[in-house]
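Case study.
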Amino acid sequence: VGQVVLPGDLLLLPAHYDEDAEGERLRLSAGTAPQGRLLCGPGLRRSGAGLLVTKCGLLRHRPGGGGAYWVDSQQKRYVPVKGDHVIGIVTAKAGDVFRLDVGGSEPASLSYLAFEGATKRNRPNVQVGDLIYGQFVVANKDMEPEMVCIDSSGKSSGMGIIGQDGFLFKVSLGLIRKLLAPKCEIIQELSQLYPFELVLGMNGRIWVKAKTVQQTLIIVNILEACEYMTAEQRKQALAKLSGN
Amino acid sequence: QVWQIRLDMHLLNHDGNITDAASIAGIVALCHFRRPDVSVQGEEVTVYTPEERDPVPLSIHHMPICVSFAFFHQGTYLLVDPTEREERVMDGLLVIAMNKHHEICTIQSSGVVMLLQDQILRCSKITAVKVAEITELIQKALENDQKARKEGGKFGFAESIPNQRITAFKMESAAVDTNNVEEQAGEIIAKADPPSEVFASPVVHTPGTAQIGEGVESSWGDLEESEKEEAAEEEGESEAAAFECEKVETEDTSTLKETKNEPIVLSDSEEEEVVILEPQELPRKTR
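After joint prediction, the assembly is written out as follows.
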C-alpha cells in the first residue's frame, strides 16, 4: 500500500498468503484477513486469487467499513462513472431530451423533467451552450450515459443550470480529486484572496466566477498551475498576489 | 511491388490544433520508416530481414503539412495555429495543407464564417511561410537522427523528450546535442575509442581504465582531459558514467551533470543495466 503499481501486477489478498511461495506478487496490507466485504476500487479488477492492477499509480487503502483498495492514477480523459457529479455543455435539444457534452466518448442525455420543480408545463429554461451541473444515473460502457439534476429525494442540492458569465476550463482528473478532498488547502487559500464561485466537475471541468474578469482569470491561472506547483510555490504566488 | 502501410496515431495530450500536429507526426513517421528490402526473380520473391540487408526508405514524393487558421468575429480576426481555448470559441476554421513547393494539397473550411477571396489568399501565403520552416525543421531532425544512428549516439523517442521533471533536485539543463560532441570528439581526440570499447569500460569498476585514463577518485577540477574522455564516453553510454563515482569526468556537460545528480542517489553503481525511468538514461545499445 502506498507503492507504485503498474498494470499487470497481481495483488494477493491476505487469505491467500500461504499459496504464494515465490513472493513475486505484491502483498496487500500485512494484517489479519479483513472483516466483511472488501471493496475493489478504480484501477483494480478481481482475477482469480487476487486483484489485478489495470492502471498505473499509487495503491491506496481505506480501512473503514470492510476495507477498500484503489489505485490513485492520473489522467486527463474522463470516463463516465455512475454517481459522479459533472459539468456538461448543452450541445443540442432533441425533443424532450438535452444532449450534453461531458468529455466522454458519447454525449450524455438529460431529460427536461430531471430538474427540481419541473413539470410538463413548467419546462426549465435551457439553451444550447448552457452549462449544467448534474450527476450520472446511468453510465456504463454499453449504453449512452444519462444524467439528472436532482438527487434521489427530488431536491436539486446544488445541481442544475450554472449561471451566466464565469469561465470554464479543463484540468486533469487528479487535480479535481485533490481539490474535492475535504479541507483542501488550495481552496481555503484562494478564498482568502477574493470571493468567488466555484463548480468542480469530476470530468475535469472547473467553472469559476469572480467579481471582475481579471480576478476570474487570476483564479483560473492559479488553479491550472496548482497541478505542478508545490505548496510553498503556491503560497509564494498567492502572497505576491494578495500583496498587490 | 505493392506494399500496404498502416499508420496508427495515438494522441497522448493536446492543447488544441490536433490536425496540424497529427499531419506533421504522420508525414515524419512515414519519412522515417524503413521497409524491408525485397528482390524478385521471376516467380520467386525474397524478403530480406533487416540483418541481411539494410531496410529501404519509402519513396515520399512530397511532404504536405497542414496549417490551421481560426476566425473570430465574422472574419475580422485571424489566428494561426489556435490553442484549445481559442478553438472552443472560434467562429470558423480554415485548414490548408501545402508542401514546400507551394502546391496546395487540401483546403477545408468549416464553421459559420464566410470568407473573402483575399483572406484565403492571405492565409495561403502565411501557410507557405510556415510550411517552409516546418519542412526545414523536419529535414534537420531526420538528418540528425540518421547521423546519430550511424555514429552510435542516442536516438529514439525517449531521447527527444525534454527533461521536465518536477523534483527538488531539478537543475537548469543546457541542451547539449550529442551529435556535435561526437564530431568534436572525433576531431580532438586521436585516441578516441570506438563506442563498443567504451561500452566495455564502465563494466570495470576499477578506476583508471585505459580509455578513461583518470583513475583518480575525483577529478572535479580536471576540465580539459575529462572533456575529451567524456566526449568519448558520450558515444557510448553517458549514464554509465553517472554510475561510476570514480570516473568523474562528467561535470562538464550538463546533460551528464543531470544524470549524475539524480541517479547517484538511486543506483549503487553496481548495475549499469538498471533502467532508470528518466528520458535520457535509457541504456542505449550502440550498433
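Observations recorded in class. The interface with chain B takes residues 76, 169-170, 228, 230 of chain A (CB under 8 Å). Residues 136 and 147 of chain A are 4 Å apart (CA to CA). We will return to this complex in the next lecture.
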